[in-house]
Amino acid sequence: MKRPALDVNGLTGPAAAPAVFDVSLSVAPGCTTIVLGPIHSGKTLVLRHLVGLEEALHGTITVDGESFSACGETEAVLRRMRTRVGVVFQGAALITRLSALENVELPLLEHTNATAAEARDAAGALLRDVGLAPLDPAVTPSQLDRAVQRRVALARALALRPPVLLLDEPTQGFDPHAAAQLDETLARLQDANGFGLVIFSHDVRYAFGRADQLYVIADGAIIEHGPPDAIRESDNEVVHRLLNRRGAA
Amino acid sequence: MTAVSGETPRPYAGAAGSAPPARTSGLIAATSGRFISRGRLAISASYWVAWLSFSRRTAIGTGIQREFEGLGLGALRLVCAASLLVGLIAIFQIAYQLSAYGAEMMSVRAIGWFTARELGPVGVALMIVARSAAGIAGELASMRANGEIDALRAMGLDPVKYLVAPKLAALLVAVPALTILSDALITFGGWLGSTFILKFSTSFFLDQYRVAFELRDLVIGLAKSILFAFLIVIVAADEGLNAESRVAAIGEATTRAVVYAVIGVLGVDTVVNAIFYFIPVLA
What we know:
The complex is a heterodimer.
Chain A: E1 6-13, E2 20-27, E3 32-36, H1 43-50, E4 58-63, E5 66-69, H2 75-83, E6 85-88, H3 100-111, H4 116-129, H5 146-158, E7 164-168, H6 176-193, E8 196-201, H7 204-210, E9 213-218, E10 221-226, H8 228-232, H9 237-246
Parallel strand pairs in A: 3-8, 3-9, 6-7, 7-8
Antiparallel strand pairs in A: 1-2, 1-4, 4-5, 9-10
Helix pairs in contact in A: 3-4, 3-5, 4-5
Chain B: H1 2-5, H2 22-54, H3 58-72, H4 76-99, H5 106-145, H6 148-154, H7 159-197, H8 202-212, H9 215-241, H10 248-278
C-alpha cells in the first residue's frame, strides 16, 4: 500500500485562539480530496496550518512520509515542509512587484541550484504545462485576467514538484466553462505527476463531481468523511442541511 | 451601580497601591511589542543585506536596482528642489535675525556650520520619510492585504529577504548620496541668496564658508544619514508587514509609518547632538 501524500492528525489551532479542532485527514497520491464546508467553517484556516502560516496548539502533519509537528517547529523545518507542499491561494496571491514569469522562477531560484537561464526555461515549461501560451517576460500579474493569474499561481505551486498540492476555492469567480478548463488541466497534471490534491471548497456540486474523498467541515471540525456516495447517505444533520441547501445530492 | 446612583465613574486617579489601568498597561505592551518586532526585523534585514552583498542571484540583484531607482533616483527632483529652497530660506532667515546685531555677514558662516551636519542629513531624511516611508509601508501593507506575504512564506521564502533587504540596501546607498547632493544644493542656494540679494561677493562667500566648514561635519552628517536610512526602512517595513490583512489597514499603516519615522529621525538626531554637546571631544 502506498504511503499517503499527506496525513494530518489531530490538528487543533491556532494556538492563540483555536478555531479548528482535532482535524485529521489523509490524502493518497494521485487522488483528489475535497474539504467541503460553508464559508467561515475553517477551511482556509486548515490550509494555513498545513503550510505553517498558523501555529497550532497540537497536531502532526506528514508529507510523503516525513512528519512535522504543527506547533513550534523552527523556521528551517517549516521551510523544508513548505517546499514539499504546493499551495494556490484563493486570490492567486502572485507577487505584484515581479513579472508573472519571475513569480514562477522564484521558488526555483531559491530552493534549487538552477541558474537564472535554467530557471527561466523551467518556468516557461511549467507555464506551458498549465496550459498557458508563452508569456512576455515583462508582463506583470495585474495585466493578466483572473483565470490566467490562477494558472500562473498553479505553475508556481508546482515548480518544486511537490507530492501534495493544496488549492483554496480554485474555481471561485469562474464561469462554468473556465472552471471546467481548469479542472481538466488539474486532472491532466495530476495524472502526469501523481501528486495528492486537496481542494478546499464551499461548492457542493463541484465537490461531489470532482472528489475521490470528501471531508465535510463545519465550525472548525470534520463532521463526516468518505467517498461522495457514502457522504450522500450520511445521516448527519449538518451534512443533510449542507447538501439540501446546495442541492447537490 | 452607577446608573442607579447617578454618579459618573471617576477616571483613574493614579492612586498609590491601586492597579494601573488596562489602557496604560496595554500601551506599554504595544510599545514594547513594537520595539521587539522592529529589533527582530532590524537584525534579520541586516543579515540579509550582508548576504545580498555576496549573492550572485540575479532575481535579488534586480530587486536592489529596482528599489534604488524607485526610492533613490525617484527622490532626486524632490531633494534638489527642496534643498535649493532650504538654502535660500536659511540664508534669508539667518541674515534677517543677525541684521539686528549688524552681523549679517555671519549668515554665510552659519550655512557652513549647519548644512553638512544638520540641514542636509535631516532635511533629506524627512523628505525620504515623506516620500519613501509612506511608499514602503503602503506597498507591504497592500501585499499583506492581497495575501502576497503569506504566499512568499508558503513557498518557504523569507519576506524580509525579498522585500525589505533590497529596500534597505538601496536606501543605505541612496540616502547618503542624496545627502551629499543636498549639502551642495543648500550651499548653492545660500550662495545665490548671499550674492544676488544680500550683495556679498562670491570670494567673500567662499572665504567665510571655508572658515566655517569642516570635513568632520560632512563625515558626521553622512554617518547620521546612514542611521536615518536604516531607521526609516525598518520602521516603515515593520508597519507594513504587521498591518492587518484588510484594505483599510493600508492607509493606517502608511500614516503610522510616517509619524513614527519622523519621530525616530528627530529622536536619533537629538541623541546624536546631545552626545556631541555633552562629550565635546567627539564633536
